[in-house]
Known about the structure:
This protein is an alpha/beta fold. The chain has helices at about 20-30, 50-60, 100-115, 140-150, 155, 175-185, 205-220, and strands at about 10-15, 35-40, 65-70, 120-125, 165.
Amino acid sequence: MSKPESDKPKAVVLVSGGMDSAVTLALAREQGFHCHALSVSYGQRHSAELVAAAELAASQGAIEHKTVVVDLRSIGGSALTADIAVPESAGEGIPVTYVPARNTIMLSIALGWAEVLGAREIFCGVNAVDYSGYPDCRPEFIDAFERLANLATKAGVEGHRLRVRAPLMRQSKADIVREGIRLGVDFSRTVSCYQADEQGRACRVCDACRLRAEGFAGAGVADPTRYYC
Length: 229
């Protein structure tokens, strides 16, 4: 027998509008959490992913969806927050699409909201298998942030341990596609492209598009992505 709605634990789920966060939200719901979806408008190149995030939160049963604005464009340093061309391949080393401190900031906002809500779980869709090499997508980062969360909060100090969950951390993109299909995620509503247009159509050539397409191909699932080229 499932728990009554009032007895379900609360979780804050970071929802970017992309495929990984959509699957993460579906997993959190499946695990019995009241999901409070959080998106961050940080000055990214396009707003299509934020529109997708709001639609996903509504369609996937989030209790509420909040978008917090943080102006990372004011410091730049990334092809996603400055007038730097998005490369067609990741190349060697950490790519220019890495946004300095982005995941640290997003998780910090999620942590603050979790304390306000009395939630003990934070979910994020970071992945360290099929990804672009960002340092803040590694398990070491998530583990370190969880330690910080329990040192730096009233909840943690008072013994109400907070957990940071990254359920897709060790899954390939193909695995993530399969999991999303199992959970009924509508991938056609997700936006992964670094330079999507206003309608959310993808460029086909950036690293995010490449990884996404390889995931659908590897899973043997038709790619529902809408492209503008």
